[in-house]
């Protein structure tokens, strides 16, 4: 009967497709031991050797090392447990290879120098925790301490939402352009000048926020709504036609900031209010801010953000043109 048959190494080679040399090697390793020998000393194997060799070949093709293969064949460990562990290890290797491919593709496309390539590779290979720490340090510098926190110390409120909306999430399988964007974004987030600009904008926004009150539109929202049509119509910001637009912006802005810039201080005069809005818009209009948001959209796979530069440029020019004619501060 088939179950009582004994097979030589040659028989096993014909049945399994493995070479005699490979079978002899697995036999020497104790993975497929013989159950007897011929009078001439040749090894003989039972029918179960065919099934064991088929399993060994599959496990080796999947990349398992010999000690693990032996433990699986001898049932010292469960195959599903081993398969899960190796699947995870392969997933890590695949992510690493894909990231290397993206970095090399980006380097080739940019014509990077060796120094740039080294920096790109270093920043791209940061772990998720390392990336979060780098971004978290940047966002803390810009928005830290401006929101209330819950019982665990987690920020809550307006600035917590802003932090989330400005957090890059580099995918496990990034495209070359996402790697390029992440590297530039990481460098930008370490720029002290850019951090200072964002902090100034955030502080000014926080100063006009009343805890527990219904959120009011900020200065940028006011400008976008009031100035957008004028920009689309090609109105010259220094012209008489722009006067009504500036007046509408200042009226809305006065409502946003309230009658005074600080509690207990006298009302801000017209020129003072314009200077305050001008300074705020100049900070918001820093090109690094828009660049960060565009890079963020690439990294996170979002649609490109609307550019605020046209309306901000228009308003800054309009305010500057009218400051010399404004009345003295009250």
Keywords, separated by commas or semicolons:
disordered C terminus, single chain, Multidrug-efflux Transporter Regulator, Chain: A, Domain 2, 15 helices, 1% strand, 63% helix, 2 domains, mainly alpha, two-stranded antiparallel sheet, 330 residues
Walk me through the structure:
This protein is mainly alpha-helical. The protein has two domains: 2-76, Multidrug-efflux Transporter Regulator, Chain: A, Domain 2 (Orthogonal Bundle); 126-325, no CATH class. Residues 260-268 and 326-330 have low confidence and may be disordered. It starts with 8 loop residues before the first helix and ends in an 8-residue tail after the last helix. The chain has 15 helices and two strands. Strand 1 (36-37) and strand 2 form a beta hairpin. It has helices at residues 9-16, 20-28, 48-61, 66-73, 79-110, 114-124, 128-143, 158-165, 176-189, 192-207, 219-233, 243-257, 270-284, 287-300, 309-322, and strands spanning 36-37, 43-44. A two-stranded antiparallel ribbon has the order 1-2. The chain is rod-shaped, with a radius of gyration of 34 Å.
């Amino acid at each position: 009967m088939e179950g009582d048959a004994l097979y030589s190494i040659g028989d096993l080679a014909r049945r399994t497709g493995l070479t005699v040399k490979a079978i002899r090697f697995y036999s020497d390793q104790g993975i497929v031991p013989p159950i007897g020998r011929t009078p001439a000393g040749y090894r003989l194997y039972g029918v179960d050797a065919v099934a064991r060799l088929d399993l060994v070949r599959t496990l080796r093709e999947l990349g398992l090392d010999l000690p693990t293969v032996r433990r699986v064949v001898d049932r010292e460990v469960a195959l599903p447990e081993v398969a899960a562990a190796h699947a995870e290890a392969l997933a890590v290797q695949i992510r690493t290879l894909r990231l290397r491919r993206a970095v090399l593709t980006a380097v080739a496309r940019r014509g990077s120098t060796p120094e740039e390539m080294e920096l790109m590779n270093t920043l791209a290979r940061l772990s998720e925790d390392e990336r979060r720490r780098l971004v978290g340090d940047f966002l803390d510098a810009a928005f830290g301490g401006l929101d209330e926190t819950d019982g665990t110390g987690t920020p809550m409120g307006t600035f917590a939402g802003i932090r989330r909306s400005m957090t890059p999430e580099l995918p496990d399988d990034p495209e070359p352009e996402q790697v390029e964007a992440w590297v530039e974004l990481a460098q930008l987030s370490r720029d002290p000048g850019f951090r200072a600009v964002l902090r100034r904008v955030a502080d000014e926004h926080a100063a006009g926020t009343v805890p527990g009150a219904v959120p009011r539109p900020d200065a940028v929202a006011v400008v976008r709504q009031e100035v957008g049509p004028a920009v689309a119509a090609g109105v010259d910001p220094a012209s008489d036609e722009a006067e009504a637009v500036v007046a509408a912006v200042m009226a809305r802005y006065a409502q946003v900031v309230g009658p005074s810039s600080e509690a207990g201080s006298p009302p801000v005069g017209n020129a003072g209010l314009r200077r305050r809005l001008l300074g705020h818009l100049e900070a918001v209009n820093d090109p690094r801010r828009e660049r960060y948001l565009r890079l963020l959209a690439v990294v996170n796979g979002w649609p490109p953000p609307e550019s605020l530069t046209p309306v901000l440029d228009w308003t800054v020019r309009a305010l500057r043109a009218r400051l010399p004619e404004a009345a003295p501060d009250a």
